């Protein structure tokens, strides 16, 4: 049976991989894995060992603790992982080098998100 923590860790691996613009094949090759094995990690079907998690964190330039961020605590709801479309949008936004333009776009996104939640 798949453990919820393994599913959460897998979602976080996928999320940061997408934010970095990397494919499963890219990451798997750099880690010496098959893309199928990485896919099993990302779905939580296979548990990631501590040493492999450390390698993944180094490759994706995050702290190992990143994979546990957002885990629900007793009585607290789990945060939704970022979908592929959102990850690609975040990657595109972070690639904008002009800080003023990036800040304006972020402000616009927050404004639109606020309006949407008010009308819902």
UniProtKB/TrEMBL annotation:
Gene Ontology MF terms in the entry: DNA binding; DNA-binding transcription factor activity
Keywords (alphabetical) are: DNA-binding
**Could you tell me which Pfam families the record lists for this protein?**
HTH_3
Query: Where in this chain does the record put each HTH cro/C1-type domain?
Result: 13-67
Q: What name does the UniProt record give this protein?
A: Helix-turn-helix transcriptional regulator
User: What's the domain of life for this entry?
Assistant: Bacteria
List the CDD domains. Answer: HTH_XRE
The Gene Ontology CC terms held by the record are:
cytosol
Note whether DNA-binding occurs among the keywords: yes
InterPro entries referenced in this protein's UniProt entry, alphabetically:
Cro/C1-type_HTH (IPR001387), Lambda_DNA-bd_dom_sf (IPR010982), TransReg_Diox_bact_type (IPR050807)
Q: Which Gene3D superfamilies match?
A: lambda repressor-like DNA-binding domains
């Amino acid at each position: 049976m798949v453990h919820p923590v393994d599913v959460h860790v897998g979602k976080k691996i996928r999320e940061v991989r997408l934010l970095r613009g990397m494919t499963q094949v890219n990451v798997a090759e750099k880690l010496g894995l098959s893309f199928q094995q990485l896919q099993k990690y990302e779905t939580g079907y296979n548990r990631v060992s501590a040493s492999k998690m450390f390698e993944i964190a180094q490759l994706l330039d995050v702290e190992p603790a990143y994979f546990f961020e957002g885990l629900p605590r007793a009585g607290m709801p789990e945060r939704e992982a970022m979908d592929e479309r959102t990850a690609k949008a975040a990657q595109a936004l972070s690639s904008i080098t002009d800080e003023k333009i990036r800040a304006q776009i972020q402000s616009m996104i927050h404004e639109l998100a606020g309006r949407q939640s008010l009308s819902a």
